[in-house]
């Protein structure tokens, strides 16, 4: 019984977080992809940082955005 309750809570939290990432991808696709790649250390840091800073959205890094953090860590590990 407790396992199903935990599963339901995790599903609700992850679905809300996934919805916010999908909404960000639809509303600002370039900024969302750039932010994902920037925080996963895939983008090189040696080119014009002013242009990059305009696209990187720090508000996507809120603590409750679990799916965004999962994607960043996934890219860090496997890219």
Topology, pairings included?
Blueprint: H1 2-27, H2 29-39, H3 49-55, H4 66-78
Helix pairs in contact: 1-2
Protein architecture, described:
The protein is 72% helix and 0% strand. With 79 residues, the protein is an all-alpha fold.
Structural class: mainly alpha
Indicate the radius of gyration in whole angstroms.
Answer: 15 Å
Number of helices: 4
Give me the strand/helix succession: HHHH
| Counted beta strands | 0
Q: Could you tell me how far the N terminus lies from the C terminus, measured between alpha carbons in angstroms?
A: 38 Å
- Which consecutive residue ranges, at least 5 long each, have pLDDT under 50? none
Characteristic key phrases:
single chain, 79 residues, mainly alpha, 4 helices, elongated
What's the short story on this structure?
With 79 residues, this protein is mostly helical.
């Amino acid at each position: 019984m407790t396992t199903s309750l935990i599963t339901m809570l995790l599903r609700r939290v992850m679905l809300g977080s996934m919805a916010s990432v999908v909404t960000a991808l639809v509303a600002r696709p370039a900024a969302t992809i750039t932010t994902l790649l920037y925080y996963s250390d895939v983008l090189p840091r040696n080119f014009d940082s002013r242009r990059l800073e305009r696209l990187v959205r720090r508000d996507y890094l809120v603590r409750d955005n679990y799916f965004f953090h999962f994607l960043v860590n996934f890219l860090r590990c496997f890219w």
